[in-house]
Design brief:
GO terms for molecular function: peptidase activity. It holds the Pfam family Peptidase_U32. The structure is a single chain. The protein is α/β, with parallel strands linked by helices and about 450 residues long. The chain is built from 12 helices and 24 strands. The protein has helices at about 15-25, 40-45, 50-60, 80-90, 100-110, 130-135, 150-160, 185-190, 240-250, 265-280, 285-295, 425-435, and strands at about 10, 30, 65-70, 95-100, 115-120, 140-145, 165-170, 210, 215-220, 235, 255, 300-305, 330-335, 340-345, 345-350, 355, 365-370, 370-375, 380-385, 390, 395, 400, 410, 420-425. A hairpin with a 5-residue loop joins strand 18 (about 370-375) and strand 19 (about 380-385). It is globular and about 70 Å long.
């Protein structure tokens, strides 16, 4: 639980590496899970009980927290397995369980009374009456429905001042109310609310009109370029409203979605929202700065969703043009634990100018030698450029690409989990066209 008056920054942890990255880039706590009792089965498979325990110990050694997801909706046939799972997860000593179903809340209270309960957004709490019911059941934090307004959050806090309230501020949105969708179950046999959503809403659909009286079927032609992504929701992005959220005094934790997303996404989202929180507290909130950083991640277009606007007032929450995520940067490399090498994640050539994106509080020293140089530019950012591309065994390469698993030498030390990044080819082309047209 949040042990001080500061708003907690809560990030996704799909595996142990992402857990470490989230903490390095500013998260106070992370959430993740093991097995089919989490709503993200794909990410749950990346954590074993052993690595999840390692992550918990890693967090606690740094004064951070880990919340374990047990937020699936079990069948009757799964309840005995669920009981064993709750007991085993409790032995790992997470800081809370995230639970969705009332019956599972009660089961957790019976089997692991020492573990605090956080109520999943899937429980769809929108008012203080429902919040009171769960408080009486032993829940001490609610993760409010994504459709809730900030005014309603304040109203719940007014009636239940001891109840912690957590809200989503960033990540994928579902076109269905609070994620209660069955499209994937109907079409693919994969049940969204049991952790195996096939993301059918992201597909492109062809629309038809039928007349049952004489069995005719017409394909509906759409305006070129409009697209047929009729269910595809934009991604939530409330970074520009962090000041309003914190000013309300009703929110205890702001949460980022994305356990199945990339390590780079985990880093950038934690970094941007950490800066937003800290800048607000320092009286220098700058929304454009956080949006510029978040735009470097792959996304489906951004919307500020429903917290500060009523759902029926919104006209910009859907993306009908594309489902593929877009981002302005590519991750070129990830710095290894010895801080002297990096693993290539994209492609690197000699003399490329590569931006250094380092964890919060990092110190970077400029240097130059036969391998290359690390330097700071007028924009205040640090960069690295290679004169030679050398493997750990001093083999020189003309270039290095993401399929190469060799460690590549750095000109100087960079902090562990630092990321190297370059503008995407599309972004570079757009920049060139913009400068040329000017």
């Amino acid at each position: 639980m949040n042990k001080n008056n500061k708003v907690e920054l809560l990030s996704p942890a799909g595996n142990l590496e992402k857990l470490k990255i989230a903490f390095a880039y500013g998260a106070d706590a992370v959430y993740g899970g093991v097995s089919h009792f989490s709503l993200r089965i794909r990410s749950g498979k990346e954590f074993s009980f052993e690595t999840f325990k390692e992550g918990i110990d890693y967090a606690h050694a740094r004064g951070k927290q880990v919340y374990a997801t047990i937020n699936g909706f079990p069948f009757n046939s799964q309840i005995d397995l669920l009981k064993k799972h709750i007991i085993k997860m409790a032995e790992l000593e997470p800081d809370a369980f995230i639970v969705a179903a009332p019956g599972v809340v009660r089961l957790c209270r019976e089997l692991a009374p020492q573990i605090p309960i956080h109520l999943s957004t899937q429980a769809n709490v929108l008012n203080y009456l429902d919040a009171q019911v769960f408080w009486d059941m032993g829940v001490r934090r609610i993760i409010a429905a994504r459709e809730i307004s900030l005014k309603d959050v304040q109203e719940i806090k007014k009636h239940l001042p001891e109840m912690e309230i957590e809200i989503f501020v960033h990540g994928s949105m579902c076109f269905a109310y609070s994620g209660r969708c069955l499209v994937s179950a109907v079409q693919m046999g994969r049940v969204p609310n049991r952790g195996s959503c096939a993301n059918d809403c992201r597909f492109e659909y062809t629309l038809y009109a039928a007349n049952e009286d004489h069995s005719t079927l017409f394909r509906l032609e759409e305006e070129p370029g409009v697209g047929t992504y009729i269910f595809n929701a934009k991604d939530m992005n409330l970074a520009s409203h962090v000041d309003e959220i914190l000013e309300s005094g009703a929110v205890d934790s702001i949460k980022i979605e994305g356990r199945t997303k990339s390590p780079y996404y985990a880093a950038v989202t934690a970094y941007a929202y950490r800066k937003a929180i800290d800048d607000y507290e320092a009286g220098k909130f700058e929304a454009d700065k956080y949006q510029e950083e978040l735009a470097t991640t792959k996304n489906r277009g951004f919307t500020d969703a429903y917290l500060v606007h009523r759902p029926f007032d919104r006209t910009n929450t859907q993306n009908h043009e594309y489902a593929l995520s877009k981002g302005s940067y590519e991750v070129s490399g990830l710095i290894t634990e010895d801080e002297e090498h990096f693993y290539c994640k994209y492609k690197t050539y000699p003399n490329d100018e590569i931006e250094i994106f380092a964890p919060i509080g990092s110190t970077i020293e400029e240097c130059e030698n036969e391998i290359g140089k690390i330097y700071k530019k007028e924009d205040g950012k640090f960069y690295v450029s290679f004169k030679k591309i050398l493997t750990e065994t001093n083999k020189e390469l003309e270039s290095v690409h993401s399929g190469n698993t060799n460690k590549i030498k750095l000109p100087g030390k960079l902090p562990y989990l630092t990321m190297l990044r370059v503008k995407s080819e599309e972004e570079q082309q757009n920049s060139c066209e913009g400068s040329c047209s000017n």
